[in-house]
Design brief:
The protein is an alpha/beta fold. It contains 12 helices and 11 strands. The protein folds into 2 domains: about 80 residues; about 180 residues, Uracil-DNA Glycosylase, subunit E (3-Layer(aba) Sandwich). α1 packs parallel to α3 and α4 runs antiparallel to α8. The chain starts with a strand and ends in an 11-residue tail after the last helix. The chain binds uracil. Uracil (URA) binds next to α7.
């Protein structure tokens, strides 16, 4: 398998991985309405080699028909057109499209993908984290790295599969080097979180970590102060707990986190949340 330096020059990635990244990028651009790309010779050569993967994009629900136009190695530049189906008009898709095209802050310049969030768009439980990390930025999906694996286990411990909740972050783009989100970045992204809550209409929200808690609750109180009681965001009850990345570094916090999770599940049941695989209570 060929490998090369990844687009950020960090470490070698396989051609297959680059193909997957390209597909995700193309899908996001298609959702934003882009139909043509201008490729230099090298990119065209790469596309030609991963032609099967590009055909997968053109066969995906977001697109109709094969890519049109031509690609070829060694040419000065090549135009590739992909015919996309019209976007769905519902609120969720409209919001997603808006967020995917966001350029409200500096994070738009360095990001690979926008991480809108994923899961059940009508979930009764909304999970809010801090911001995408390296793996999330590459894949366009929230919580897929080591912290994400632990998040999955935490959710499973109280009876939820990942696809039964909606998982998103305060910031939709990765801060370079995983630095803390800056106040103006949070301010730029906060309206998206509000709209996600409006559209998904969860019965309970769980804030994982200080940034999620402080952003949702518009406070600068510490996580320690915020844990252990129920709060509210836009009329929806909020439970606050440790960020899974913090739990990976501090195993002694796992016990109190478990108490938070049990409280979350109780609140969820009291709020009439659907039992996994079942109907709304
Ligand atoms: N940490 C977060 O807060 N969110 C992610 O998506 C990944 C790691």
């Amino acid at each position: 398998m060929r490998s090369s330096i990844d687009p950020k020059g960090c470490w070698p990635v396989s051609e297959e991985t680059r193909g997957e990244l390209l597909i995700r990028y193309l899908k996001q651009r298609i959702e934003l309405g882009q139909r043509e790309w201008y490729l230099d010779g090298g990119a065209a050569d790469f596309i030609a080699r991963i032609g099967a993967l590009v055909r997968e994009v053109s066969a995906s629900p977001a697109t109709a028909g094969p890519p049109t136009g031509t690609t070829g190695a060694g040419c000065e530049g090549t135009s590739v057109a992909i015919n996309a189906a019209p976007r769905s008009g519902n609120d969720f898709e409209a919001l997603r499209t808006e967020v995917l095209g966001c350029t409200r802050c500096r994070l738009a310049e360095a990001r690979m993908t926008v991480v809108f969030g994923e899961g059940d768009g009508e979930a009764d439980l909304l999970v809010v984290g801090e911001a995408p990390g390296y793996e999330e930025d590459l894949s366009g999906r929230p919580f897929v790295g080591p912290a994400g694996k632990l998040l999955d286990k935490m959710l499973a411990a109280i009876g939820f599969r990942r696809d039964e909740v909606f998982i998103c972050n305060v910031l939709k783009c990765r801060p370079p080097g995983n630095r803390d989100p800056l106040a103006d970045e949070i301010a730029a992204c906060r309206p998206y979180l509000r709209k996600q809550v409006e559209v998904i209409a969860p019965r309970v929200i769980c804030a994982f970590g200080r940034f999620a808690a402080q952003t949702l609750l518009a406070t600068d109180q510490s996580l320690t102060r915020l844990r252990g009681s129920t709060h509210e965001f836009m009329g929806v009850p909020v439970v606050v707990t440790y960020h899974p990345a913090a739990l990976l570094r501090n195993a002694e916090w796992k016990r109190p986190a478990w108490e938070d999770l049990k409280m979350l599940r109780r609140l969820y049941d009291d709020a009439g949340g659907r039992t996994p695989g079942g109907e709304r209570g």
